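In this supplementary section we document a worked example of the pipeline. Step one takes a protein sequence of length 284 as its only input; no multiple sequence alignment statistics are reported here. Step two produces a three-dimensional model, which step three serialises into C-alpha cells for compact storage. The input and output of this example are shown verbatim.
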Amino acid sequence: MQSFNHLITTRPHQVRQVLISDLHLSPQEPALVQAFLALLDDCLALPALKHLFILGDWFEVWLGDDTYLSLSEDEQIAHWLTPLITKLKQLRINGCKILVMHGNRDFLLGQPFCNLFGGELINEPYTLPIGQQNYRLEHGDALCTDDKKYQFFRKIMRNRLTQWYLLNKSLEKRLAIADNMRRKSQQNNAHKAAHIMDVNDKAVRQAITTSDALLHGHTHRPDIHQATADKKRYVLGDWRLLDKDTRQPKVSAVIGAVTDNEHSNDSFSSNDAEFGLFEFTMLV
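The serialised model returned by step three reads:
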C-alpha cells in the first residue's frame, strides 16, 4: 500500500480528488478529529484538488443538524465541530467541491449542515468518471445482503417518514433511541458470522454491471478485489487509533485518491487519470 503522506509531498500537483469513508468522528475520539483536521490541512495544500468525497459514517452518530444549528453563537464557537467546518469552508473557497454521502450511522445528516461549509449531499450510488472509466461509489452497507435483519432495519431507517418522526423528537429522546439501537447492534453483531457482515458477491456483481469499478467503505476491510474477470472492487478503510498505549500512538486509514499526470484543470476529462488506495497516517 502506498503512503498518502508521501504522495502529497512528492506529487501534490497531480492529486485531483480524495475519497474517504468511515471516520466515525465524535468528541469521545479526539485523536480521530485531529487526524481529520490534519487531512484537511493536507487537502488545503494540494493546488489541483477538485473534489473531496466523504462516503458515509463521517460521524459515529448524527442525531440531526439541529444538534449544531440550534446552538448559540458562543456555544458554536466552543464546539468540537467548528474547526472542521472552518477548514472545510476554506477548502470550498479554494475551489474544491465537498461531496458527502450518508452512511449507516449518519443517515440523519442534512443539507442545512453541509451548507455551513458549501458541501453537497449526494445520493448513492454515485457515478464518478475517472479517465475513461466510470466508478460506482456507495457507502457499502446496501451490499451486505446476507444480513437480512440489518437490511430490514436499513430500509426502515432510510424511509423519509421514519426520519421525519425521529427528527421531531427532542434531542434527549433521539440520544436515548440512538444509544438503544447501538447496544442492540453490538449485541446482534457479536453473534453474527463474519461473512454475514461483509458484502455479498452476487450483490457486488449486480451493482457493478453498468460500471467499470466499484468503490465503497463500511466493512472496515480495506483491500482491492477482483469483482469480475475485468472489474475491480476497491474498499476504503475505517479511521482507527493504533498503539494508543505507547508513547507515539497514531491514527491510520486507507483512503482513495485520483491522480493525473497531465496538466489538466479537469480530472474528469483527462485520459491519464488514475485511482489508487493509499494509507494515511498521523502521529498523535
